[in-house]
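Technical annex, item 7. During the second reporting period the consortium partners agreed on a shared format for inverse folding records so that results from different sites could be compared directly. Each record opens with the tokenized structure and is followed by the designed sequence. A conforming record, contributed by the partner at site C, is shown below for reference.
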């Protein structure tokens, strides 16, 4: 019990740290009246979107709550068999408790996103103001803002899972918590992603390409909507996303610890809530929170830092946190005689695989190249160079980079699965995912700070601050694109391991011993599972295209019908509220169908084709979903930074034909990297956790 309480205490420390950082950010100066006015518009639009989104999701959550309470009334193991062995009553009537856990998971996910967005819409003006002082000051404010999100996510997550495990001692109940977190995360990521990319594409295509305006020009009606989108999609949506990733990996590993013991020996029931393997993921997560806080103190840079130095500034913090986390884990395992030290090497494997995926993603999405024998190899600069020959060349180059960028992550995951399984069996696969996300507190901080820096740059442009302010925020924004892509790589990599661990738990829960691809039902399920990530991505991309089309027409209308707007006549302002309303309406309508796929598909396949076919469906979705998510995230990140590289004055700079082509690549890549790609990893885990909860009904 002491170990679980220590994990809860670490979560509490994380929340206290988040509160102190929030107070630190809020004490920073907000800037002049114009900066405050723009910040207020962004804050108002973000709050309005989140209020509408959460009101829709509240109805959905209530419906699922009722379904869980009424229909999930079975035991994970055969009650009759358990009773015959004298262990009856260990797990009974799960439905109401699973439903309650579901509510708490949904609230936790929504709360994490809300807190992160609330501080982000206040940190953006303060970052813009800090950039007037220097680059390091701006980095400190933006990073502290992102760190609030990181520590909030891990604090709420570990406290929620630990408390439910102590109270119920039941893997299906804590799976309900993960189901709630995944439900909110998927809709928040999809809805926010559609919103932000519709606004971003509209602002870029009409503002930059057609009207020849700079990015974030105050004359552009879609600029405020774009700034709002950074917060509702890249902050609130991402916070809910990684909250789900974090708790999902812990829940999957605890479930495996339960099933590996009890499914082979039912006399082990009632299961010991303090079993070392069950609480180890909680301890590792707790150690990671403390390590993340310590690593945050190392994030600082000089005022003349280039992209490479900025990257290493964040790497020092992340790598130090990872090392401290490993030391703490090694000490705990070494002191616990009932745990094999091989489990430490499983955690090392998870962290190493995560770093390999993150570093690979960094290279494919950063314009700081890799030098081999004095020759630089850089995919982003190559895409920018290809833009000189036109729009189609840009698209082809970005697709190419995205496709072959899947090789290193795929090999890393395969090696990671092999090593983890060799060291600790199926349990090791889940534990490796926990290790990969153990320092999420700081890795999410480096991810969440990017949208804050992006907003700060937009505010600096609209408030007509000195050009050097925009240069500093652009440097932080470009770094943010890379760290965001790295964060997505971690999330996607951990999603594969977590989904695989949940698939294994599903087979235990349903009594499936193998998935035979020669069985037509399993093969059919596998093909359907492989299809689902493509269908899901197609629907979300279509939604962005439709919403962006409406935004483009609105921006054109305002330039056409508001006299003096395009010319920048004094006193003439765009109707930003109308642009915000268009993005809000389009995104909230479009998020429903893709979100329902993750819940309806497993239940439909399980009901119509049986438990084995559903297992095949999960396996197929993991394979194609992983590769498609990496492809989309990396291609989108590379296109974005290729555009920024051109805007630095390379290959003709802003306003050139090369720039127009690079902007086209960026607008294609935007929904790739910020809507469809990152939402796939939630899709995989949500389908797996729905299958785990409902699976025994299909046996």
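Designed sequence (site C submission):
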């Amino acid at each position: 019990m002491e170990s679980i309480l220590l994990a809860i205490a670490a979560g509490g420390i994380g929340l206290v740290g988040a509160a102190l950082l929030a107070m630190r950010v809020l004490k920073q100066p907000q800037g002049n009246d114009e900066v405050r006015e723009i910040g207020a518009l962004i804050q108002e639009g973000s709050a309005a979107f989140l209020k509408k989104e959460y009101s829709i999701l509240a109805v959905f959550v209530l419906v699922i709550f009722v379904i869980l309470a009424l229909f999930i009334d079975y035991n994970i193991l055969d009650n009759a068999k358990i009773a015959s062995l004298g262990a009856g009553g260990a797990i009974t009537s799960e439905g109401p408790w699973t439903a309650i856990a579901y509510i708490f998971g949904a609230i936790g996910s929504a709360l994490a996103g809300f807190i992160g967005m609330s501080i982000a819409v206040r940190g953006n003006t303060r970052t813009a103001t800090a950039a007037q002082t220097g680059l390091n000051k701006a980095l400190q404010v933006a990073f502290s803002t992102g760190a609030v999100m990181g520590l909030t996510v891990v604090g709420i997550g570990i406290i929620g899972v630990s408390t439910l495990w102590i109270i119920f001692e039941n893997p299906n109940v804590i799976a309900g918590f993960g189901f709630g977190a995944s439900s909110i995360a998927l809709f928040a990521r999809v809805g926010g992603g559609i919103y932000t990319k519709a606004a971003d594409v509209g602002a870029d295509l009409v503002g930059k390409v057609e009207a020849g305006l700079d990015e974030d020009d105050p004359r552009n009606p879609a600029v405020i909507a774009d700034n709002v989108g950074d917060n509702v999609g890249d902050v609130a949506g991402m916070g809910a996303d990684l909250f789900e990733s974090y708790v999902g990996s812990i829940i999957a590993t605890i479930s495996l610890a339960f099933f590996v013991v009890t499914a082979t020996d039912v006399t082990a029931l009632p299961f010991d809530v303090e079993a070392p393997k069950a609480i180890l993921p909680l301890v590792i997560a707790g150690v990671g929170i403390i390590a993340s806080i310590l690593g945050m103190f190392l994030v600082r840079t000089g005022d003349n830092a280039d992209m490479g130095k900025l990257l290493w500034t964040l790497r020092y913090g992340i790598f130090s946190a990872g090392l401290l986390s490993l030391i703490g884990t090694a000490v705990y395992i070494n002191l616990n005689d009932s745990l094999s030290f091989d489990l430490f090497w499983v955690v090392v494997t998870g962290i190493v695989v995560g770093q390999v995926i993150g570093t690979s993603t960094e290279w494919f999405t950063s314009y700081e190249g890799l030098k081999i024998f004095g020759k630089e190899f850089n995919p982003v600069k190559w895409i920018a160079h290809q833009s000189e020959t036109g729009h189609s060349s840009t698209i082809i180059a970005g697709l190419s980079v995205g496709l072959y960028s899947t090789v290193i992550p795929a090999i890393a995951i395969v090696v990671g699965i092999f090593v983890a399984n060799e060291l600790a069996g199926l349990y090791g696969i889940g534990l490796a995912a926990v290790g990969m996300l153990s320092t999420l507190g700081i890795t999410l901080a480096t991810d969440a700070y990017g949208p804050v820096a992006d907003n700060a740059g937009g505010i600096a442009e609209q408030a007509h601050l000195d050009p050097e302010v925009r240069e500093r925020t652009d440097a932080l924004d470009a770094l943010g694109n890379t760290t965001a892509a790295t964060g997505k790589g971690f999330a996607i990599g951990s999603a594969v391991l977590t989904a695989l661990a949940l698939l294994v738990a599903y087979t235990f829960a349903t009594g499936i011993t193998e998935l035979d691809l020669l069985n037509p039902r399993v093969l059919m399920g596998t093909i359907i599972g492989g299809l689902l990530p493509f269908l899901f991505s197609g629907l979300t991309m279509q939604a962005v295209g439709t919403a962006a089309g409406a935004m483009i027409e609105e921006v054109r209308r305002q330039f056409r019908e508001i006299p003096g707007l395009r010319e920048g006549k004094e006193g003439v302002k765009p109707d930003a509220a109308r642009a915000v309303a268009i993005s809000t309406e389009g995104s909230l309508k479009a998020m429903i169908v893709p979100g329902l796929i993750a819940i309806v598909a497993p239940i439909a396949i399980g009901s119509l084709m049986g438990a084995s076919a559903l297992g095949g469906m999960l396996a197929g979705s993991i394979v194609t979903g992983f590769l498609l998510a990496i492809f989309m995230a990396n291609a989108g990140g590379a296109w974005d930074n290729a555009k920024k590289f051109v805007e630095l004055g390379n290959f003709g700079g802003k306003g050139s034909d090369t720039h127009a082509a690079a902007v086209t690549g960026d607008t294609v890549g935007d929904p790739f990297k910020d809507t469809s790609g990152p939402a796939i990893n939630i899709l995989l885990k949500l389908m797996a956790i729905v299958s785990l909860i409902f699976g025994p009904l299909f046996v």
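The mean pLDDT is 84. The chain is about 80% helix and 0% strand. All partners now use this format for quarterly exchanges.
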